[in-house]
Amino acid sequence: MNKRKRNGIEDLLKKVNVVSQEEAEEVDVVICMPDGGPRYFSDDVSAFCASCGIAIHHRPHVPKKPPKVCIHCGLRMVEADKARDGDQPSDEQRAALRARARRQKLRRLKGD
Ligand SMILES: [Zn+2]
Fold first, then answer.
1. DSSP per residue, the chain
2. What is this structure's pTM?
3. Tens digits of residue pLDDT in 4-56
4. I want to staple 73 with a disulfide (CB 3.0 to 4.6 A). Which of 35, 51, 63, 88 is the partner?
């Protein structure tokens, strides 16, 4: 069985950064659920998406400073960020790849 599939949730959780409340205040946006769907908590706070203005709700303890946006606007922002940054390797990664290619070439030339 594919280990990666079996541990899908564990893999996903490895990508989740747990940060302090202070660090959370520095995020770009807080992505919230739009109104209309089920609410899991009766003490959710009602608000409006800072981008498109639709009604949203969030937990009372989310970071106060960052704008709250609906999941649709949030995903659009994440996609726009990805498109802008691209998935380009960093300079360090590029240098490491070049060094590895040089070593492989040397090994081939030496014949081992
Ligand atoms: Zn929105």
1. --HHHHTHHHHHHHTPPP--HHHHTTSS-EEEEEBTB--S-TTPEEEE-TTT--EEEE-TTS-SSSPEEEHHHHHHHHHHHHHHHTTPPPHHHHHHHHHHHHHHHHHHHHT-
2. 0.63
3. 556 688 887 888 888 999 999 999 999 999 999 888 999 999 999 999 999 99
4. 51
CA 97–ligand 1 middle distance (angstroms)? 40
Residues with CB under 5 A from ligand 1 (ion): 49, 51-52, 70, 73
- Ligand 1 centroid to Cα of residue 34, in Å, is 8
Give distance in angstroms: CA of 38 to centre of ligand 1: 18
